[in-house]
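Students often ask why we bother encoding 3D structure as a string. The short answer is that it lets us treat folding as translation between two languages. Here is a chain of 56 residues written in the first language.
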Amino acid sequence: MDYVAALFPPTVMAVAFTWLIVTMVKSQGGANKYKEDAAVDAAFAARSGQEQQRQD
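And here it is in the second language, the structure alphabet:
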């Protein structure tokens, strides 16, 4: 039974890591891409607005 206890944590971590990678790949593109692009564009706009106010 010691071998089961030794192999259980790495197996769980491998499954969790695989699930994480699959989730990240699936969330790229599609409808989510537009939401992510909009969020990045909004952040860039806010940043450039702050820089303009500092220069004025």
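Translate back mentally: The chain is about 90% helix and 0% strand. Keep this in mind for the problem set.
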